[in-house]
Amino acid sequence: MELTALGPADRARMGAALRRGEPVRLDLRGPFPRDLRVDEVAPLCHEARAGDPELDRALAAWAPPPARPRPDLRVTAVIPCSRGQPLGARALLAQDVPVRVLVLSNGPDGPRAVPGAEVLRVPWEGHGRTRARALAHVRDPWVLFTVDDALPLGAGFVRTLVEAAEAGGYDAVMARQVPWPDSDPVTRRRLRAWTPAGRTPVEVPQVDDVAALYRTEVLRREPLPDVPIAEDLAWSRDHRTGYAPLAPVAHAHRRRPAALFARERAMHAMRVRLGLPPTVPDLRAAVAALPGVLRPVLAAGPAELPNQLAELAGQWLGARDARRD
Fold first, then answer.
1. 310: which of 116, 205, 253, 260 fits an S-S bond (Cβ 3.0–4.6 Å)?
2. Dihedral pair phi/psi, residue 151, rounded to 5°
3. CATH number at 75-250
4. Can you give the pLDDT at residue 52?
5. Dihedral sign computed on CA atoms, order 279, 281, 282, 288
6. pLDDT tens-digit profile of 40-77?
7. Contact 176/244 with Cβ under 8 angstroms?
8. At what angle do helices 257-273 and 305-324 cross, to 10 degrees?
9. How many CB atoms lie within 10 A of CB 248?
């Protein structure tokens, strides 16, 4: 699709086109929006220009990684999927290196066929065990774990991850997560902190299985732990892990209180079980944290208040759950 502006309606159309697998061409006729960043818009575009030399250089610098074939590489991508079709399967099959896509279909609504991919009907046994069991079906030296609502950007996405792992000698590397064009301000700010823009790979404390490439031989020796969530965090504690900022993947969730509460509760319980300090150790700490809830609400609007309270409650109850185990 063609875009000449980046207003709210244009961003919604852009996100819908990306989810359908359509390339987006941006020919911006007007100023770049102040609430967006070039390094987050350019990776989403097949082509992008603005008619301003400085802005055009920035758009080109942050374009998704182009094709540069390396036929010597072999990668298997593993995608657990419980609904519809995995969003990134088509993009993974179109990479500049051979990628075998293995979809772990679980649940009654999981896909029975995915064009170009292999589908395994498997039970859902938690994030750790489900992915670890898939390794029995992996024959390639590299395995990419990703999720069914993540979209790899650029034909060189997988190769960029492999080359970052090779250059740094990492056991695993993770991709940069960029927000969808219509993502909310809180999501944008958090993704900028979690996977910041950069030009070179760096070592990080952990990878994120939203999109993380592992050495298969290392996973065979030391598989992902059998945990319901945060398997990537638990595994990373004993391995060298890196971050490849020039390998972008579009991924972000709509912020909804119930989902935020459930995720924060599960994640923070697992963090405490792993020996990490709780973010909100008790009710007193939860009450003390309430003023901090107001800052993102003031920035994003009153609709963000239930989300902030849900996250805070989930962090507090997650720590309590872990202490009761």
1. 260
2. -120, 105
3. 3.90.550.10
4. 92
5. negative
6. 999 999 999 998 999 999 999 999 999 999 989 999 99
7. yes
8. 30
9. 29
φ/ψ (deg, to 5) at 152? -60, 140
Rounded to whole angstroms, the Cα distance separating 48 from 42 reads: 7
Would you list the domain boundaries of the chain? 2-61, 75-250, 257-324
Separation CA 62–CA 45 (nearest Å): 10
> What does each C-alpha distance from 278 to 120, 204, 215, 258 come to in angstroms?
37, 20, 31, 21
Token match 């250059």: residue? Answer: 167
By the 10 Å C-beta count (0-12 exposed, 13-18 middle, 19+ buried), 43 is classed as buried
**CA–CA separation, 244 and 68 (whole Å):** 17
241 DSSP β-pair partners: 172, 204
Provide the pairing of β-strand 47-49 with 151-152.
unpaired
Q: What is the pLDDT of residue 1?
A: 94
Amino acid letter for position 119: V
- Residue pair 155/161 in contact (Cβ under 8 Å)? The answer is no
Residues lower than pLDDT 50 in the chain: none
pLDDT on residue 59: 96
Tell me how far apart the alpha carbons of residues 124 and 58 are, in angstroms, rounded to a whole number.
43
H-helix segments, the chain: 8-20, 38-41, 53-61, 89-93, 127-134, 157-168, 185-194, 216-221, 231-236, 257-273, 283-288, 290-300, 305-324
pTM of the model: 0.95
Contact assessment for residue 297 and residue 304, using Cβ atoms and an 8 Å cutoff: yes
Pairing of strands 75-81, 99-105: parallel
Give yes or no for a contact between 190 and 200, defined as CB atoms under 8 angstroms apart: no
pLDDT tens for 284-316 read 998 898 888 888 888 788 899 999 999 999 999
